[in-house]
Amino acid sequence: MKIGPAQAAKLAKVARSTIYRDIKEGKLSADKGAKGKTIIDISELERVYGKLSEQDNQKTIEDVRKAQTRTTEKSSLDSALQVEVEALRREKGLLAEQVEDLRRRLDDESDERRKLTMMLLEHRQSKKGFWRWLVRKN
Asked: Which helix (H) or strand (E) holds 24?
């Protein structure tokens, strides 16, 4: 089982700086976890620092198992959230397309309204009134 440097120091009953120094000097091997954090195998601690106390070792094992369970739960929650985020992104894209379509339609309607207004104005100006027609006839 793998643990972090702080837990390793507590389990081995040494300072955390000792753990880091031993890793740097190559006495204690460690790996990098998924997020780039240092992790140390418990068997490696026993190799370097000797037998670890059973009580602390058992507590650490239980803590690690609990953390792994929480990580699994978080992973499933993360997966559900990722699915929801993807669905929301698709919905956002559709809404953006709808907004663009509505804007285009509004612009088209506005152009059509301007054209019709101009046609009405031209028609009014070219149309003679009844009295003008009657007066010119005489």
From this structure: helix 16-25
CA distances from 67 to 4, 18, 30, 35, 57 (A): 12, 24, 19, 15, 15
What is the 3-class SS of 9-20, one letter each residue? HHHHCCCHHHHH
Q: Of the CATH numbers 1.10.357, 2.160.20, 1.10.860, 1.10.1660, which one belongs to the domain with range 2-81?
A: 1.10.1660
Q: pTM of the prediction? A: 0.41
Q: At what angle do helices 54-126 and 5-12 cross, to 10 degrees?
A: 170
The DSSP bridge partners found for residue 31 are 39
- Are 4 and 32 in contact by the 8 Å Cβ rule? The answer is no
Q: What is the pLDDT along the chain (138 residues), one digit of tens a residue?
A: 788 888 888 888 889 899 899 899 998 888 888 788 888 888 888 888 887 765 555 666 677 777 767 777 677 777 888 888 999 999 999 999 999 999 999 999 999 999 999 988 887 776 666 666 677 665
Torsion on CA atoms 94, 96, 100, 102, rounded to nearest 10: 70
